[in-house]
Amino acid sequence: MSLATQQLSSLVTPPPQGDSDTSIMKIEIGPSHPAMHGIVRFTTYLDGELIVGMEPEIGYLHRGFEKESENSKWIQVVPYTDRLNYVSPLLNNIGYSMAVEKLYGIEAPRRAEFTRVIMGEISRITDHLTCVGAASMEVGAFTFFLWFIKAREYLWELVEEVTGARLTTNWTRFGGNATDIPDGFFDALQERLDKVKDIMDECDKLLTRNKIFIDRVKDVGTFSKEDAISFGFTGPMLRACGVPYDVRRADPYSVYDEIDFEIPIGSTGDCFDRYLVRMEEIRQSISIIEQAADMMPAGPIMTDERLMHYPDKKEVYGNIEGLIDHFKLVMEGHQPPEGEVYLPTEGGNGEIGFYLVSDGSGDPVRVRMRPACFNYVEAMPAMTVGHYVADIVPIFGSVNMIGGELDR
Amino acid sequence: MTTTDSELVTTSLLKKNFPKSILETHCHRGDETVVIDRKDLLSICEFLRDDEGCSYEMLVDLTAVDLLEQNRTPRFEMVYHFKSLRHGKRIRVKVRLDEQDCSIDSIYHLWKAVDWYERECFDMYGIHFNNHPDLRRILMYDQFEGHPLRKDYPMDRQQPIEELREIEERYHYQRDV
Amino acid sequence: MDLILEILSIPLVQSILKIAFIILLFAMPLGTVLTLMERKWSAMIQDRVGPNRANVGNYTGNGLLHLAADGLKSIFKEDTIPQGANGFLYLIAPFFGLIAGVATFAIIPIAGPIGDFTFQVTDIEPGLLFIFAITSLSVYGAVLAGTSSNSKFALLGGTRASAQMISYEVFMGLALMGIFMVYGSTRVSDIVNGQNEYWFGNLIPMWGVFTQPLGFFLFFTALIAETKRAPFDAPEGESEIVAGYFLEYSGMRWSAFMLAEYVAVAGVAVLMTTLFFGGYHVPWLHLWESAPQWLVTLLQIGKFSIVTIFFCWLQIQLRWTLPKFRFDQTMSLGWKKLLPLSLANTALTAVVVLAFM
Predict the structure, then answer these.
(1) Which one of A82, C119, C124, C230 is separated from B157 by 20 to 30 angstroms, measured CA to CA?
(2) What's the burial of B125, exposed, middle or buried (CB within 10 Å: 0-12/13-18/19+)?
């Protein structure tokens, strides 16, 4: 019996030895279980209702993203990234494309960057809405889940307007975006954001000061700052512990350094803090979107660099360079110069980092994605042991594990 | 993005403290990178974590690269990414590993995040981490043969789980196994 | 004709007819319709449409046909028994809850008596003590289902259910002590008639909710916990222990659990109506002295039904608004808050009754 608790003896007490056959009940939670959204299994050891040991088992959704990417062309990886964190696919698209741009040493035009900020923040809101909604559903507040999903639906319709798809967006390219924002988009955006704000206020009134809800989430899954850093927590989970670390501020990418926003932090790192941090981040994201919409410059959405995107048909048929570019892109694909980069971006769940290695040929040597929730699931035993079995639900809900990102 | 050598604080600190074990440094696209000797990994990681000038409190990522198709002689490269919250810096530490002896010391006791990252690296590349207390497969199942992210693992090889294959044979095709 | 009246005047025949009327025409249909009502009302809360697809030809009845569809589906579904389950106990467990739920209606009068004929199956002397006895029977349903299923989740659910229901029976009894003192009886007809008195001339009826406001809240809370409805549905805890004690059931036995739950919801509603909202008595109706008997009876049944449906609705509304308690929070709420409150309520009522009545 290799309990994860035994390795974490500083955090938790190991299960009592001796007549463990009778007093400890081993119960398999998952992989098919209503609270295990995504597929994951927790082998849980219970003493009555108290959790004395837990061992997570992951890998049920492993699809070989990295292997598949390394056997594709660089641009063919973009659709695969949609399927990583499937509640905020655009953030993965953006993270990957910006990493390849870093590999090239180019930057996308400013209009493309601002569009990316807007779409990325919309995705972040959908991610947080899903997380908060699912977490509140699992503590019994089913109604809020559907209200949040309603708000998410408004935003996904926007995403669909721009990218043509709700989930399989495949929107970014190297050095720009596939499509520009359509006409009348900003009016629709403002209207939708107002609706989302209304729903947020409604839910805030019903949930944030609800005694039963607070009882369920307060002081549950508490995590200290030091442990969180050591476990490699990022994103809302780390901020709930009181560390103001946000990749958008710490290592600014895109145009986030021109935009004014605040980083909400919690104090104890319990589920309630995570809930509050996510709720506040939704508001901050709305403010970021509004600022970016105001600052949106005119101009192209694709870089002028050669060999980054297909030339216009006029160029292809009209001059030799265009024809060669088109031929090379079709036959060989993108060929980033030799080198390696790591680009961290702030995903919905935490730091999404793409570590890319290129050897100068058209085939990626290594496409590594740092999954944000890998560390969270790793820390599940440390968060749950000592709590009741019912506390797995709010803790795991606030962790916001996304199977596609976790198992890749 | 150009960064002069004087700004690479960590690199110069490491060069000063471990003059013999720093094999190579570079700063491609602004990513500070040091390639170190395998046997000094533990002490360098400890130094990176605990030294005042470094204080990399967070292990961001741990992975490996298989350079079989590039015909490099040390076939594997271990890649560690660290983040210092206090100084707002990142560093990449690389260790080259030979194919015949692809084992490396585990830094398990330094960061809690290491546990699963090393398990994943073992699972995907078959790199053995010395002194890791619980080195099992994590994403693949226990019966899996080979290490899928190695370049010589064929892309289209299929390995269904034995029991499931048995069930399929027996009930779907009515054949005995 | 005389023969029919002769037969009808036999008490046994009367009782059978009343059982048929009250159980088959009131309790069970109410329980069944409540399943649809809950789904429709939750849909309304959540900006959904709710069930509306089951149809005969073009007629959907706005979801009404789902009742028939669900019933048929449950009947024809396979009745699975998990490996290693205790067969006999597993098979009988679903019906404890249903029997207990339906038996509640036996002592509830739904209209005033006409001559010797009472609209009540039986008006026994112990009255509400019978309710306490019969509701403790429903604990067995949960416990037997949980232990006989050979499933760990079901076992956890059964354990939670037994602990919660046995605890809340204590407060349920204590919360009603005040009612017994105020109306001086445990017999239901005495309590109902006692609520037909008035304070300040004919201004305020002496309903239980006015004489025992604290007792009203305590009893309502205890009853909801007793029926394992949200926010006290930790024994079912669909997110952590999947469905709790009836996890392994399927088909009609699963439906029996669901039906038992809704019959219990209706049971809670009729108990609240009877004990705290004047039962069948229409307030201030006695001022209209020339009212014809048939009209009075109809009005009484109408008033009783309306208040009952209000309480059913209230329970549905609570379920879809509130998150649920954790199991230990349910218990500490019971023992640490409700128990002292109900003891205080009992003592206070005793003092007031001694001093003024």
Answers:
(1) A82
(2) buried
C324 vs A139: CB contact, 8 Å cut-off?
A: yes
When the pLDDT of each residue in chain C is averaged and rounded to a whole number, the result is 82
Q: Read off the pTM.
A: 0.84
Cis geometry, peptide bond prior to residue C11 (ω within 30 degrees of 0)? no
Q: What amino acid occupies position A174?
A: F
For residue A277, what are its two tokens?
Answer: 């941090």
> What pLDDT shows up at residue A355?
92
Q: What average pLDDT does chain B have? A: 82
User: How close A97 gets to chain C, by Cα (Å)?
Assistant: 38
CATH ID of B5-138, from 3.40.1190.20, 3.30.460.80, 3.10.580.10, 3.30.1330.40 = 3.30.460.80
A-B interface: how many C-beta pairs under 8 angstroms?
A: 106
B60 touches chain A (CB under 8 A): yes
Whether B93 shows a pLDDT value over 60: the answer reads yes
In this structure, which topology does domain A65-304+336-407 adopt according to CATH?
Cytochrome-c3 Hydrogenase; chain B (1.10.645)
Yes or no, beta carbons of A67 and B149 under 8 Å apart: yes
Which residue is associated with the tokens 């990994």? B41
Euclidean distance between the first and final Cα of chain B, in Å? 62
pLDDT digits (tens, 9 = 90+) for C102-138: 888 888 887 777 776 777 777 777 778 888 888 888 8
Q: With an 8 Å Cβ cutoff, are A341 and B28 in contact?
A: yes
Q: Cα C36 to the chain's mean position, in Å?
A: 17
Report whether C257 contacts C94 (CB < 8 A): yes
**How distant is the Cα of C163 from the closest Cα of chain A, in angstroms?**
12
A20 pLDDT more than 70:
no
Nearest CB neighbour to A216, from listed C48, C160, C323: C323
Question: How far does the CA of residue B14 sit from the closest CA of chain A (Å)?
Answer: 21
d(CA C318, CA B71): 68
Closest chain A residue to the Cα of C329, Cα to Cα: A215
